[in-house]
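Why this split exists: single-chain examples teach little about how molecules sit against one another. For that reason, every record in the complexes split bundles all components of an assembly together and asks for one structure covering all of them. Below is a record exactly as it appears in the raw files.
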Amino acid sequence: MTYPTSRAKTWWLLQALSGLALVLLLGVHFVAQHYVAQGGLRTYAQVVAYVRHPAVAALEAAFLVVVAVHAALGLRAVALDFGLPAARQRGLNAALAVGVVLVVGYGLWLLAQVRGGAG
Amino acid sequence: MSSPSTVQLRVFRYKPGDPAPHYDTFAVPVTPRTTVLEALQAIRRDQDPSLMLRHSCHHASCGTCGLRVDGQEVLACVTPLADRGPVVTVEPLQNAPLLGDLVVDMGPFYAVFTQAGMPLVRSTEATAASRPAAGIERLTRFENCLECGLCVSTCPVAATDPLYLGPAAMAAAWRVVQEPRGQNPARALAWVDQEHGCWRCHLAFECSTVCPNDVQPGQAIAALRQRLALGEPAPPGPAAAATRPALAPTGPARRVGLRAWLDPRGRDVGYWAFVLHRLTGLALVVYLLLHLWVLRLLARGPAAWDEFIALARSPLFLALDGLLLFGVLFHGLNGVRVALVGLGAAARRQRGLFWAVLLLTLLLLAAGVAALVAAVH
């Protein structure tokens, strides 16, 4: 069996860097939601007011993108742990990319709905 | 001289053609100095001459008698049998084709060393370039590799990925990088720089734990990553297209798959860090999707959201929140540990870092749970 010339290093570094970014973003996400937001986001009105702040919206959007990418890379790593053949890696990469786009797209749509005061 | 006591040796049995492996139990007399290998030889001599096992030197020099004793990879010739309890289970190494009973085919394992640039048998005589340089003492670790295969048997990645190059061969590649002796270090780097090479390793460090000669393959893999990530790039091309001999189907599968991840016998902290990192990672992916699904209630308006918030204050929900917080904290903090150790920084302190991660996780978890409870009341 022949190995492909891989981009394994890039994948691993991307996962490590997205993970480190997540630690920072998640920290800010927690602190902002539980300690900075007035009232602690217990009511619908508080949530809408919170996400209408441009900095909060940017933070949540960035968090969503990074967490989706990191999760996809993690699932890819698990698949490769189980010996996914090189011939199927392209298909897996494409499926995970579609998954990331769907999750991020849905999350951003939801963010926009809430910022607009939907419901 | 003490009188011998008796131990029940539960031995893995399989002969080519058998429908499935089974275990036979033999009563063997043991003294405090009896080794597992001596007991197995006594079984073959006195009870069952058909028992298949490998051995040679009897003093931990040849690496031939590697086995799993009560789930842990050891050299049978230097492993005492006494003080292990009344029943001791002996099995062949994992992640290698099984030939029969306690004997596995080491051919694929040996062949990978040639690809790493460290063939077990040289095809040419030593040249001036292949002689060790001054200061060779620091390289004695890999020189002491017995090629026993214990590291590959215990490796959780080798258990699931049949293409994985394995810790021993990558330690050999690191040895070529450090001290080429006429070999091409760039080729060794290119060989390990692949999906099933050094980037597949999850830093469980079981390989280093079981190595009978302190070769420290896990640290070697971390060093290879560091060189690849921060040092000179490995050249692309034919050198990277290395091959690994396929495992010949000579017996029932000894690659145990996911079950190996959850086998608690004889594991060190690095292994548990790996398993917990995987489990929390998969759980967090599920949570991410669940979280987005719940947040859809926000798009439905205040009534739906407030109804959910009331539910979220139930004791069951709070308990799940605590579990989630543990997963997030451990995965995040251990992820930092993995990134540091995986790039060769603090690879020798990975155990201490694991305990620091666990302590910090528990401290932050306690603070988080207290904040959660206070918020509800």
